[in-house]
């Protein structure tokens, strides 16, 4: 099973700042990595798929990069509604797996 | 926009059974692979099971294989998860999710399964 390790566990930033979240895979997942955002009491929402493609309706402030084993989600300028938990997920190999999540909190 | 409505969650005793349902609308259900993903209280996301659009192929996490069965009825736009031999560690919110190329693009609101005596 491919293990996805996200860092940091918690990221404390202020609105307007830039956020950089990391996801590292235990073996290559090619570019088959997605990012999700989850707010309290809500279902997750797909942000990025295939490492760098924004899902429908996702603003351009969200961007993804990487391939192989190292991936990054960047939020260029944080809005108040961006503070949430973020998960990465790989679809390269069964079983599908998620990272443990990064909590983005207001500083 | 695709809509998914999960239901069927309940309090059940260890060793018991439960069937979850997910009714889909506003997209062509019979053309879409479907999935179940769960989240234990205060924990992260865990993929549980997936099924191809025709139902011809199914996939399971090791933690549920042999106990859970995913199925679908394309005539009713409904996805199911039959859960048998439930354990305390199966306690979670269960989400159904539509997928494109195994990216989960639409999610239900979730249904809570609690396994406890």
Account of the protein in words:
The complex is a heterodimer of chains A (107) and B (117). With 107 residues, chain A is mainly beta. Helices cover 0% and strands 50% of the residues of chain A. Chain B has 117 residues and is mostly beta strands. Helices cover 0% and strands 54% of the residues of chain B. In chain B, strands 2, 4, 5, 6, 9, 10 and 11 form a seven-stranded mixed sheet that branches. In chain B, strand 4 (33-39) and strand 5 form a beta hairpin. The radius of gyration of chain B is 13 Å and the shape is globular. Chain B starts with a strand and ends with a strand. The mean pLDDT of chain B is 97. The chains are: A mainly beta (107), B mainly beta (117). The A-B interface holds A 1, 34, 36, 38, 43-46, 49-50, 55-56, 87, 89, 91, 94-101 and B 37, 44-47, 50, 59, 61-62, 95, 101-105, 107-110.
């Amino acid at each position: 099973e491919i293990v996805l390790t996200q860092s940091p566990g918690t990221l404390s930033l202020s609105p307007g700042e830039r956020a950089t979240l990391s996801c590292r895979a235990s073996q290559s997942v090619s570019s088959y990595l997605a990012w999700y955002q989850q707010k309290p009491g809500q279902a997750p929402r797909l942000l990025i798929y295939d490492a760098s493609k924004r899902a429908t309706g996702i603003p351009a402030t969200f961007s993804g990069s990487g391939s192989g084993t190292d991936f990054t989600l960047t939020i260029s300028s944080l809005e108040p509604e961006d503070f949430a938990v973020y998960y990465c997920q790989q679809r390269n190999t069964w079983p599908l797996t998620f990272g443990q999540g990064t909590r983005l909190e207001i500083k | 926009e695709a809509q998914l409505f999960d239901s069927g969650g309940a309090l059940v005793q260890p060793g018991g059974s439960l069937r979850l349902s997910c009714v889909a609308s506003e997209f062509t259900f019979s053309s879409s692979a479907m999935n179940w993903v769960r989240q234990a209280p205060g924990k992260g996301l865990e993929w549980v099971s997936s099924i191809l659009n025709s139902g011809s192929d199914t996939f399971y996490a090791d933690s549920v294989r042999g106990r859970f069965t995913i199925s679908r009825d394309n005539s009713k736009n409904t996805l199911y998860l039959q859960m048998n031999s439930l354990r305390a560690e199966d306690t979670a919110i269960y989400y159904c999710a539509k997928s494109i190329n195994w990216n989960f693009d639409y999610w239900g609101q979730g249904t809570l399964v609690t396994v406890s005596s």
